[in-house]
């Protein structure tokens, strides 16, 4: 079956680093139809931009995660609350899954901090901890590796496929010279995994946190939500004080 082009559904965009030409629009006609110029085309769910810094994509992801955090709060807003394990699984399915989609492409962007901020709120919901709680303690209590570690391992998984799978579009692609120091190439910043993804995540997480870590909830998660939340306040040493209540906690 042959593919038939549809100019009315075709978008065009120029990718470059010349700021002087940032507002320039391409004027291209195809089969008598003027193609639509867009500054932020979307390809397979990833929003692209002129300089490929993925700022718009990160902003969109943050917006999605914040909306899904609102759904998670519904599980813990009542007095009884959902089981902590249920909240954790829901967070992985709703928030972390969308935050890691196609991350081997955009995961090295400087704008990923916006996504991390939204995911920090996700693990606060899982643990019931307050905003003053140190972020590193949140992920330990939630039993979830920090976002940058999960993105790194996801990128290494893709690099492993690129090296070992002959069907991969980039199979046998060699690393060449890099002209721009500001660009962090996928081939330059990733490596082949020697262990399974979970073991690799734990090893990287342990090196960073300098302690034994596990991808599961700590003891006490079988208790009711109110007990679980109180336990985490005690573990972190951050509870409901007058100062926290003053700040809206």
Q: How large, in whole angstroms, is the Cα Rg?
A: 22 Å
Structural class: mainly alpha
Distance between the termini: 61 Å
- As laid out across the biggest beta sheet, the strand order is 1-4
Which descriptors apply to this entry?
single chain; mainly alpha; two-stranded antiparallel ribbon; 10 helices; globular
Detailed description of the structure:
This is RNA-directed DNA polymerase from mobile element jockey. There is one protein chain. The protein is built from ten helices and six strands. The protein is mainly alpha-helical and 249 residues long. Strands 1-4 form a two-stranded parallel sheet. The termini are far apart.
What does this entry show, briefly?
By secondary structure, the protein is mainly α.
SSE blueprint:
Elements: E1 11-12, E2 29-30, E3 33-34, E4 36-37, E5 42-43, E6 46-47, H1 55-76, H2 84-99, H3 103-106, H4 112-127, H5 135-142, H6 147-164, H7 186-189, H8 197-209, H9 225-236, H10 242-246
Parallel strand pairs: 1-4
Antiparallel strand pairs: 2-3, 5-6
Organism: Macrosiphum euphorbiae
InterPro entries: RdDP_mobile_element
Protein name: RNA-directed DNA polymerase from mobile element jockey
């Amino acid at each position: 079956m042959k593919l038939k082009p549809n100019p009315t559904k075709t978008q065009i965009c120029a990718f470059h680093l010349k700021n002087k030409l940032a507002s320039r629009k391409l004027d291209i006609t195809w089969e008598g139809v003027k193609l639509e110029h867009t500054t932020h085309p979307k390809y397979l769910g990833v929003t692209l931009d002129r300089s490929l810094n993925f700022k718009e994509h990160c902003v969109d992801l943050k917006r999605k995660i914040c909306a899904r955090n609102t759904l998670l709060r519904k599980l813990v807003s009542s007095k009884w609350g959902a089981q902590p394990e249920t909240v954790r699984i829901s967070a992985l399915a709703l928030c972390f899954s969308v935050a890691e989609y196609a991350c081997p492409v955009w995961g090295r962007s400087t704008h990923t901090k916006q996504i991390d901020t939204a995911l920090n709120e996700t693990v606060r919901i899982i643990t019931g901890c307050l905003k003053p709680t140190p972020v590193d303690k949140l992920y330990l209590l939630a039993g979830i590796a920090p976002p940058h570690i999960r993105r790194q391992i996801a990128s290494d998984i893709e690099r492993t496929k690129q090296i070992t799978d002959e069907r991969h579009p980039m199979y046998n692609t060699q690393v060449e010279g890099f002209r721009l120091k500001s660009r962090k190439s996928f081939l330059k910043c990733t490596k082949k995994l020697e262990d399974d993804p979970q073991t690799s995540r734990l090893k990287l997480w342990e090196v960073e946190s300098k302690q034994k870590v596990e991808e599961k909830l700590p003891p006490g998660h079988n208790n009711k939500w109110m007990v679980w939340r109180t336990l985490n306040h005690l573990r972190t040493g951050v509870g409901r004080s007058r100062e926290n209540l003053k700040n809206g906690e």
